[in-house]
Amino acid sequence: MKSGRRFLTCKNREYTIGAGDLLLFNPLDNHACEQVDDKALDWRCLNIKKDLMCLVAEEITGINYQPMFTSAVVCQSDAVPAFRDLHDMIMDGTKDFNKEALAPRV
């Protein structure tokens, strides 16, 4: 989240989210949000396919499985700047290997 505040519900839990928060949705997570301030919502999204998540999990742990996030929100995450940089590089069409080096490990 870059700006704006929202009231988020995900998997029957409630959060108030804003700038600097990292949202982590598992496949098929039910979620909804509503505006709670007068600022425009500005956010970035990386949609990582299940097959790729399984390969990354195997690379890290040696076991091919789909990781599942236990919480939908990481408040004021230190990983947000790295995700923002990675998103910008993808959107700009950067072809070098810095994208892999920048990919944050959550």
Characterization of this structure:
This protein is α+β, with helices and mostly antiparallel strands and 106 residues long. The protein has a domain at 6-77. It contains 3 helices and 5 strands. Strands 2-1-4 form a 3-stranded antiparallel beta sheet, with no helix packed on it. The radius of gyration is 15 Å and the shape is globular. The two termini are 16 Å apart.
Structural descriptors:
106 residues, alpha+beta, three-stranded antiparallel β-sheet, two-stranded antiparallel ribbon, 3 helices, globular
At a glance:
The protein contains 3 helices and 5 strands. It has helices at residues 50-61, 80-92, 98-102, and strands at residues 6-10, 13-17, 22-23, 31-35, 73-74.
Give me the side-by-side strand order of the main sheet. 2-1-4
Q: What is the radius of gyration computed over CA atoms, rounded to a whole number of angstroms?
A: 15 Å
Q: State the major sheet.
A: 3 strands, antiparallel
Can you count the helices?
3
Terminal CA distance reads 16 Å
The class by helix and strand makeup works out as alpha+beta
Which regions contain 5 or more consecutive residues with pLDDT less than 50? none
The number of distinct β-strands equals 5
Helix proportion range: 25-40%
**Succession of helices and strands:** EEEEHEHH
